[in-house]
Structure formats: C-alpha cells, structure tokens
Task: inverse folding
C-alpha cells in the first residue's frame, strides 16, 4: 500500500516534467519515460507509449521496485526495470528521467564501442549534485542498445554500484538516463547533460 | 456524397496539424500540404498556397480519390495526386502529411541519385507503426523532384506497392511524405522522421 | 499629404512584422529595419535603433521616396535610402524588409567577393512571386558592406534595374533585403530566403 | 543604506532578465548570475544557485561594491566579485549579466590559450555602445576558468582598466560577461554577443 497524496504529488511531477521535456524536443514521437518515487517500495511511472507532452493522470501508474504494476491494469514503460534498478541502488534518489534527444542519440553512436564519454573542464559540471569544481572529470558510460531490458538493467546496476558518484548514462542510438534526489534536481541534471552533450558535438563539428 | 460531421472532424485535424508543423518550422512560406480521410471515397485536403500556420475552415476542401474537387470551387494542392495515390494503395491510411523541413531538403540532396536513405540502429525507429525493435532497417526512397505530379504519383505507387511496410519517402530538394492510420499516428511519424533525419545530418557533419 | 488610415494600416503591418521577425531571431539587438508603402509618394518605416520585437506606434514614422521625414521629428533608419530606392524602382512593391540573421550574415561572408549566391533545385524557390518551378536559378547578389548608404543604394538600383525578377540581396556581414507586393508576400519571401540560406549553410557544413 | 524603491526596480529588472535569458537557453541548470546597480554603493544581485527562469523577489539580494551582503542572510552568487569589480571600474555601468550559452562555452574552449577572440566586419558590432561602424575590431579576452574568484576579479580589473572600450569577456569552458549603462543596453549586448559568437562558430564549422 502507498499514500495516495504522495502518489498524486509524484504523478503530477511526472506530468509537468513531460511537458517541459517534450517542449524542448527531448522526448519526441511518444519516446522517453519518467518516474518519481512515492516511498521506499513504490514509484509513479509513465504508461507505455503515451505522448509525453500531453501526459494526464491516466498516463501515469504505480509499480513496485521490481517493476510490477500495483493497483493498475495498465502496462508500464517497457524500460521500467531501468528505473527501478536505480531506485533500489540509491535509496535517496527521488526521480529518474529518460530522454531521447538528437544530441544524446548522435553522440552515443559516435563514441567508440567500449569507451565512455568523458566530460571535463566545463563549469556546468557543477550543476550535478556533489560537484564543486570544473576541474574534475565526469565519466558517462555508453551501453549498447538492446530490447532485453532485464539484462541491460543488470549491466547498469553493476556499473553504478562501482561508480556511485556518476550522474547518468547513455544507451547507444537510444538516449539518456539520469536521476536526482528530487524532480527539480533531476531536471537540472537533464539540462546540464543536454548542454554538455551539445558542447561536445559542437566541438566535434569544428575539430572532428 | 460524404458525411459532413466526418468532414468537419477531418478538416479540423488538418488545421491543427498545420499549426503544429508550421510552429516547428517544417512548413515555411506557404509550402507543404496535408490531408485526412473522410471515408472510402473522400479526403479533406489543404487548398493550394495557403499559410500552413494559420489554416481556417476555408483553407480545407474535399477531393475524391482521383484528386477531383467535390462540392468546391477551390483548387486543391498541386500535389493532391501524391496524397490520393496513398489512400488508394492503403485502405487503412487515415492521414497523409507532406512537409518541407531544412533537414529533409538538405539530406535529400546529399543522398546520391538512385540511392535510398537507410536508417538503422535507432531506438526511435520503433515510433513507426509495426516496428518492434531498433535492429531492423528502414529504407526511405528519394525520388527526383518534378513538376509532373501524375508521373511522380505513379512512381510512388509502384514503389510502395512493392515495399508496403516502409513509412514514407523524400523528394529531392523538396520534402517528406509520410502517412498513418490516424492523424496522431501520422504526426508521430513526422516527428520520428525529423528526428532521424536530423541525427543523420548531425552525424554527417562530424563524419562527412 | 497622405491618408492617415492608410498610414495606420502600414504602420501596424510593420509592428506585427517586427514581432514575428524578432521572435525568429532574425532581428536581434535592435538591428534590422522594415517599411510598408502608404501611397505612391510615402512609406511607413521604423525609427532608428528601436527594439524590433517591441515596436509600438511611436517607433514607426513616415518618409517620402527620397528618404526625407514627413510630419515627424524622428530620425528614420540609417538605411532608409535602401528602402526608398526599391519603392521607386518597383511601383508595385508594397513592403521592404531588412533582417540580420546568423545564416545570412555567415553565408554573405563565405561567398567570395565579386560572386553572387546561386540557388537552384529547391522546391521552395516557388515561394517567390512569379517562380513556377524548382528548375530555374535564383541569383542573389552580395554587396560589400559600407556606412555610405547613398552609394550602396545607387549600387542596388543599378543591379536590380537590370535584374528585375530577382527577389532580394545580401550585404556582406550585415544581412538580407527582400520585398513584395504586400507585407504577407514579403514575409513569405523572408521565410523562403532564411530556409534556403540555412539549406546552403547546412550543405556546406557537410561538403565544405 | 539604499533607497528601497530603487532596489525594487533593480531587482525587478534582474528577474525579468532571467526569464528572457533562460528562455533563450543561455542560463541552463541554475547557472549564470545577474546584477543591476541600485546606487553608487549597492547592487541587486541573484542569490546563489537559483533557477534563472523562475526568479522571484526572494532570489535577489543586495551587496555592496566589495561583494558583502547588505540587510540579507542569503549567500550571493559565488561570482559576485566579478560583478562588483565592473561597477567599481565603470561608474556609469548600471547592469552586469553573466550567461552560460553553448556557443560561448564551446568557442571559449576553441580559442588557443593566451589569445583573444577578435570580431570584425560584422554590422552587428554597432549594437555595442559607442561603436559606429562595422570597420573596427572588437577584442574579447578569454580568461582561464578558476574557482579562485578574487584572483579572476583582479585579472579582469587589470585588463579592462587598460581596454575600457571593450564590451565583455569570456571565461574558458564557462561563459560570457558583459555590461551596459542600463539593463536594456546590457541585454542588447548579450544578444549581440550571442549572435556574433554563433556567427564565428558557424564559420568555423564550414572553414575549420
């Protein structure tokens, strides 16, 4: 069981995130999925295949931390396990966002297989929780895309269990995952990632 | 004869599509044309030369599936036959959209004559009806531009009769055609195409 | 003397054009100037140095076809003569717009001195009055920038007197001039030009 | 002591600037900071770490020209001294804006260490106070990024004391600083800088 007021608050934060992210062009064509934690056992998450710029209350549902629907006949996002694995790994995480921007998609295909994207020397790295200076380096792993979500969830669990300070990851040809303690933190991380990915791409255009 | 309520619904979907597509910059300078099916014999289609971001009810008219005006003195889009040929070929298609984006125009001129644009490895390919994985390949033919619309209509009919699963095509230096069972499906296809075309162009900028 | 109702209509079309063009990013930082014809002898034109996205009635004034202020103490745009020379040359022109987009600025600097920009094979060329096919070629001259406006006005007069079908020109490192019979025509020309200039720049990025 | 009505006016100009600059994408992810002069001794400045598109009255505070908080328990922007050094150096400056655009970030990293960005031949250079022609040259210094703000403040003081006509500077991998007599002047300078930086980047893409 979960508190319905906490559910309503979480669902509303997902709906508003969708409007923002779709308007930026980062969740086109019913792609992407978003979630917000309700409590230690439950998260509110988008129903599969909905228009992310027009989410309403019936486009959000509840799953437990194993990705099973709770009090709902709907089918949650196909990538639900990529969300729940993060909530299990980080008890203080309150929101997970997955977006599909052009920049994330293109850059994830340009990074050579087996390599991560390394970001350094950007002041905006300080937008990530816990980062105090531009002098550090962020390592953003790029996982190969697959339709086998349980396998990918396990891959991300292993990687982030060993690199707990890193704020997100890319899936090749697919998109970005990031998280935060609150939805506001998580949206700030999305903005920072999109900014940094665009900087990297802009630089590669001039110096391929 | 056609049902006027179905006509009004179809016309309204065309008007709203125009507002969306113009705002995105995909139908500049009175370019583009849009249609929605009324019934087995009739479609609502834009009148020639109108501003696509400001369509009103008198900017939409009815044609039959041979492109002839029905109950109207207006002149329908010069490319009406490119719409009707699709409705005849696919009885379940409910909407056809033709847009003129910078990305579609530029990419269609960069694809060598006689070659198609091949899209693969993108998660967003799943936005097209019937596509379940990023592992397949979409083939987007590029037809040479011409002012001889009946000839181009016949060319597209022959090609799509043999490649019924492909979701759209480009005309060189001109734009994109795509369709769907509903206007929402068709708009999702436009968004997916624009996303994928931008990804391809972005990649070519870095790796020409 | 001029008809004040015709003046108010012309001024309003200038104000609304400004809102549109500024929102697109084509008239940043108080750059650009716009005009609309009142009658055979007078045009409404923007006052020098105003914010183009926030034009009000006192940001528009009247000049005669020699660029002299009429019934006004304001100073009209420094480039007033570039407008009036077009109205004198083409009695059917009803509006002249000058914009400062990034694309126009960059492309005008990339075209070699003494050469024009040639546009061909684009369907969108049909957006210009009188163009019926993509098979023709538009020649867009690029004049060197100067603060000697009377000299530049004379240069444009000589060129367009000999090439009356061409729809506009660039000034190097500065911007675009185009015109039309009505303000709507002129705005359509701006949209078409911006589209075509972006296509050309996008193509040069991939195939320098 | 300062006049509270002058404070309210200054604070409101900061709030509105934030809305504009965030909407343009120039202040993402709580980055950037803005200030407006109240009088010879005081400036209104953004509180550290706030969302720049949603500034309210409690996101702005007062500091003196040595960067010390006045009548406030809040912590002002970490870069407060970069603002106050400009107000001390230029008694006629009424506003200072610092933004974090992709273009400024990327370009500041592409300029070789020890070199400045030189801008010439652009008509839009006239958007800067005191510039009458495109024929001059603007020199935009690029300072290395550091978390030692007092040292950077001193560096900028020395440079601008010797180059008082130059309108702003870049910090490598970080962003842009510019100023003006009024907030409107300062916003015009931001727009002009963003335009010119984009022109430079666009040109480098085609001619690396």
Result:
């Amino acid at each position: 069981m979960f508190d319905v007021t906490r559910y309503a608050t979480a669902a509303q934060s997902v709906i508003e995130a969708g409007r923002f992210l779709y308007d930026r062009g980062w969740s086109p064509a019913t792609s992407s999925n978003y979630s917000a934690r309700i409590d230690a056992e439950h998260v509110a998450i988008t129903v599969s295949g909905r228009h992310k710029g027009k989410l309403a209350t019936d486009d959000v549902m509840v799953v437990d931390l194993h990705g099973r629907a709770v009090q709902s006949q709907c089918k949650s996002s196909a990538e639900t396990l990529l969300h729940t694995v993060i909530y299990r790994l980080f008890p203080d995480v309150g929101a997970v966002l997955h977006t599909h921007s052009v920049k994330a998609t293109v850059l994830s295909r340009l990074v050579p297989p087996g390599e991560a994207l390394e970001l350094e020397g950007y002041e905006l790295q300080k937008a990530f929780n816990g980062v105090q200076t531009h002098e550090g380096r962020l390592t953003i792993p790029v996982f190969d895309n697959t339709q086998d979500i349980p396998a990918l969830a396990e891959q991300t669990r292993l990687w982030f269990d060993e690199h707990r300070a890193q704020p997100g990851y890319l899936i090749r040809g697919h998109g970005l995952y990031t998280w935060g303690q609150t939805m506001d933190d998580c949206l700030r991380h999305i903005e920072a990632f999109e900014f940094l990915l665009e900087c990297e791409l802009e630089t590669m255009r001039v110096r391929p």
Remarks:
- Residues 4-206 of chain C form a domain with the L-fuculose-1-phosphate Aldolase fold (CATH 3.40.225.10).
- Residues 5 and 38 of chain C are 9 Å apart (CA to CA).
- Chain C is about 35% helix and 20% strand.
- The longest helix of chain C spans residues 183-206.
